[in-house]
Amino acid sequence: MPKSEERVENTGLEACEHHGHLCLLYESEAEILAPVIPFIQKGVALGERCVYLNAGEEMLERALNKALAGQKHDIGALMLLSAQETLLRGGSFDAERLLRLLQSLCSRAGADGFKGTRIICDMGWACGEGLRGSLLAEFELALNLFASQNKVTLLCLYNRGSFPAEQLLGLARLHPQLMINGKPCTNPFYLPPDRDSGVPRATSELDLFLAAAQAASGAVTDRERLRQELEQAYAALARKIYENWQEEDTLRASEKELLEKGEALLEYRRRLQTTLQHLPAMLMALDAGNRLAACNHEFERVTGFKAEEVMGKPLLELIVVATGERQDVVLAHPSEGGDYRGMQWKIRGKDGSLRSVSWSNFSRYVPIQGWPNWIIGLDVTPALQAERDLRSLSDQLSACTGELEALGNAVSRDLSSPLAKISRHCSVLQELYAIDLSPPGRELVREIHQATLGMVARVSSLQRCSPLAAGELHPEQVELNAVAAEGAEEAAT
């Protein structure tokens, strides 16, 4: 039994079922090749044996062989028989003998495992035999009966150039189906043999004609309706295409706008990331488990760690606090975000040194998705060191001030009395013995007296400065204009 897995194109030949009897009227090679070759290919694909009763159309025989050459099928799927072997066997046409031969072919196909038989009868032999029209019509009627009793599909081929038009019209009306434009269709003028015998044939043919005319009129009406519907559908489609174009333009504009906004947002995000990375303050972002999720360059600079070296570490491993303060650090960073400013906790650097940092956290008021807590820190280690250095200098200044006070007291105590005595003696010499002294002597006494008074003034100034240095110095804001005006007024008086 033949099997074929090749896909056969749907050409409408699936309507050619068993018990079918079709008629094909042709004039050119294209009109015969276009329907016949698919008719055969369809039969082979369905597992049927195809028989061609050739009456001289060698062109069709070659085309059939070529069409089936590349198709997978068992040997015997296609049989090519000449008219002398079948139609004109014995030298003349015998309808009963031919029907027995066809019956034999169908039986043999079933015995060979085929599902049915397709037979193409090239009726070109009839035009050369001079058969009466009635004999050929009776043979076609007999083929109708034969087709109804066997698993067979018959296709009769008539060349319009070989038969009179009147005869072809009568023969065509005897076939239940006609092959038109390569597709089988029901013959509207076919008069079945089992019609009511009580009705005259002319009446039945008239009924067929009226039914066909009505069908044709309905087809014209349907065609016009379908044409209008098609035009409306085309118009609706055109409107829809135009609307789609407009929507496409709108969508394209929206897409462009969204793209521009996306690029702007991306640029804003890059600027924000750059700002956070280069912010002159330490940034530590913590996840829900208070583990480090992000940090900036200032954090890396202060601690010496690279971001990848500390990423994911818990907060308590980064901040150094006493054991009793660890719980306070945890409570300052709740899941809803913390709220504190100026908390000083130390952080350990990569080199092991401790840096004092003033931390602030306002994540509760400015939440960031994925960062329940993000804290800002300022490294106050240099400020604390400067404060300690200032305190040390203040202590040194206090010590120096004490020494200066002691020196002033010693100078005042040791020099005040001798200087006062020298000054008195110089005054006595100038008053009592000025006449007895020579001019150079008087000048010398005067210079000694003046130098003694200068030393007394300096000692007095040192005595006044010592209590002032011993006290604390407090800066005050003064109005320089007022001080200058007061100085100018004193100078004027």
Explain what the structure shows.
By secondary structure, the protein is α/β, with parallel strands linked by helices. The chain has four domains: 13-194, P-loop containing nucleotide triphosphate hydrolases (Rossmann fold), CATH 3.40.50.300; 213-277; 282-379, PAS domain (Beta-Lactamase); 394-471. Helices cover 55% and strands 15% of the residues. The protein is built from 14 helices and 13 strands. Strands 3-2-4-5-1-6-7 form a seven-stranded mixed β-sheet. It has a six-stranded antiparallel β-sheet with strand order 9-8-13-12-11-10. Strand 6 (177-180) and strand 7 (183-186) form a beta hairpin. Helix 1 (29-45) packs across helix 2 (58-69). It starts with 19 loop residues before the first strand and ends with a helix.
Topology:
Layout (H helix, E strand, L loop, with lengths): L19 E7 L2 H17 L3 E6 L3 H12 L8 E5 L12 H17 L5 E6 L3 H4 L3 H17 L2 E8 L5 H8 L4 E4 L2 E4 L14 H77 L4 E5 L5 E4 L1 H7 L3 H4 L4 H4 E2 L5 H6 L8 E9 L5 E8 L11 E7 L1 H52 L6 H32 L9 H13 L1
Helix content: 40-55%
Q: How would the global form be characterised?
A: rod-shaped
Q: Overall pLDDT, averaged?
A: 82
- Structural class by sheet pairing and helices: alpha/beta
Q: Give the low-confidence spans.
A: 1-11
- According to CATH, the fold-level topology of the largest domain is Rossmann fold
Q: Sketch the major β-sheet.
A: 7 strands, mixed
Give a count of the beta strands, DSSP E runs of length 2 or more. Answer: 13
Reading off the top of the CATH hierarchy, the class of the largest domain is best stated as Alpha Beta
Query: Topology as H/E string?
Result: EHEHEHEHHEHEEHEEHHHEHEEEHHH
What is the number of independent domains? 4
- Shape-level CATH architecture of the largest domain: 3-Layer(aba) Sandwich
Number of helices in the DSSP assignment: 14
Q: Between the first and last Cα atoms, what is the distance in angstroms? A: 147 Å
